[in-house]
Amino acid sequence: MPSSHPPLPVRPATVDDAEAVADLVHSAYRSEESRRGWTTEADLVGGQRADAAMVRHVVGLEGHVVLVAVGVDGVPYACCHLEQRDGAAYLGMFAVRPGRQGRGVGRGMLRAAEAFARERWGATTLEITVLDHRPELLAWYERCGFTPTGERHRFPYGDDRFGVPRRPDLTLLGMTKPVEPAAAPAV
After folding, report:
1. 3-state DSSP call for residue 26?
2. What is the Cα–Cα distance from 101 to 27, expressed in whole angstroms?
3. Which residues partner with 65 through β-bridges?
4. What does the alpha-carbon distance between residue 153 and residue 49 come to, in Å, rounded to a whole number?
5. What contacts 186, CB < 8 A, 6 or more positions away?
6. What is d(CA 93, CA 110) in angstroms, rounded to the nearest whole number?
7. Vertex 124, ends 173 and 51: CA angle to 5°?
8. What is the mean pLDDT of residues 51-73?
9. Per-residue pLDDT tens for 107-164?
């Protein structure tokens, strides 16, 4: 995943970021604003994708981190949640504000997530799940080095914390990628 873009200014979120992170995630996936980007799932799932209480909860858990890229205005424009797993890190709540999509921000956030997982937890792989009705998103993750695992998980129907499905056939597909090794120091 080589890049000519400079690293994103990424830091771990705090509980004070919870509202802004929840708003960012909603803007990227479920809001009217999401329709201006390419990550919208508003036609597949309505309601919330994450709320401030969820964000506050995971920020305080051992083996979890929410990473945010924050603009000069102090507002997050990209984020992700990482959960430490046995030799791996699960990547979720991955979002880029629609007005910043298509500019390398997502790849930059992914590189930051990999670096955090590698350096803090010694993770060798990243794991994700993606809605199977999102072929353009599945293709983007494949271009970033993820491969399908063959795992399929039923969408959490009946749990409005994750949204209100607009279809009866939603499935989450598992994907994984090796964590890129640390760059060799310049000589």
Report:
1. helix
2. 12
3. 82
4. 17
5. none
6. 12
7. 50
8. 93
9. 999 999 999 999 999 999 999 999 998 888 899 999 999 999 999 999 888 888 788 8
**pLDDT band for position 181 (50/70/90)?**
confident
Q: Is the dihedral angle over the CA atoms 136, 142, 67, 47 positive or is it negative?
A: positive
Identity of residue 83: E
SS3 49: coil
Q: How far apart are CA 13 and CA 138, in angstroms?
A: 27
What is the pLDDT confidence band of residue 9, given thresholds at 50, 70 and 90? confident
Provide the b/e sequence for 143-181 (b: ≥16 CB within 10 Å): ebbbeeeeeeeebeeeeeebbebeeeebebbbbbbebee
Q: Which CATH class is domain 10-178?
A: alpha beta
Tokens of 90: 């699960």
The backbone region for 162, taken as left when phi is positive above 0, alpha when psi lies in -120 to 50, beta otherwise, is alpha
Q: Is residue 71 within 8 Å of residue 99, measured between CB atoms? A: no
